[in-house]
Amino acid sequence: MTRAAPIIEIRDLLKTFGAVVAAKDINIDISRGEIVGIIGANGAGKTCFVNMVTGYLSPTSGSITFEGVELVGKGPREVTHAGISRSFQVSQVFHSMTVAENLRIALAIAENRGVNALRIMESDALEAKCNDVLKRYKLEDYRDMTVSVLSQGIRKLLDIAMAVVSEPRILLLDEPTSGISVEEKFDFMDVVMGALKEDNVTVLFVEHDMEIVERYVSRVLAFYQGEIIADMSPDKALADDKVQEFVIGKRH
Ligand SMILES: Nc1ncnc2c1ncn2[C@@H]1O[C@H](COP(=O)(O)OP(=O)(O)OP(=O)(O)O)[C@@H](O)[C@H]1O
Ligand SMILES: [Mg+2]
Predict the structure, then answer these.
(1) Which of 24, 204, 230, 235 is geometrically suited to a Cys-Cys bond with 222, CB 3.0 to 4.6 A?
(2) Is 47 in the pocket of ligand 1 (CB under 6 A)?
(3) Span from the CA of 47 to the centroid of ligand 2 (angstroms)
């Protein structure tokens, strides 16, 4: 049996800020459809890693090859256009607008119509797409509500829905469950992961909550001082001595 080529190959990634080493010796291949959990104590380098893969930060050296295309040197827009999308540690939705308005803007931007974006916002095709996303992310009941009145869980669902309108093959999420209540977190993740799996999106997400890691990921990457100290299944990772010492033990 021949193995499919990895969707993304990362080689010898290094990022330094003066004396601070934010990433070092990062070498990983990720296959299509994998759900990867990125864990690590505060300052371990998780966000820097996400920023490098998504074009927000240039590595000091190394390469990131996505579907055979080198990403290093490309900016965020080009990376999104290539098929990699993301959400941020702090959600990027417009709080004074409704859920549907936010989605229409994201869709108009994804359609890349530039100055025609506002006109596109009115189109039937866009409305149909908007309704489809609202349905898949269980946001229909909130469509005409202003974001500022919604719970953090619903806001984050919208944030992720806005990141997937460009139909990415890889999605990176920086702490998707942060700020979400204990009662909401599993329902939230069920909706997100269910929708992403349906589209066979490869997902990499930063997560501090080990219950979420255990339940939703197929593979764990544990970061410590910019290096990957464990790359294994979640059950193995959570029992690993180094992960126990440098990730779980050191949390806050
Ligand atoms: N723009 C920057 N300039 C200088 N140092 C930076 C910069 N961005 C990040 N760093 C440093 O790089 C290291 C990794 O930071 P990063 O934000 O990736 O951590 P993290 O694992 O996401 O932490 P957290 O769990 O707190 O979000 C830290 O030491 C941080 O202070
Ligand atoms: Mg971070």
Answers:
(1) 230
(2) yes
(3) 4
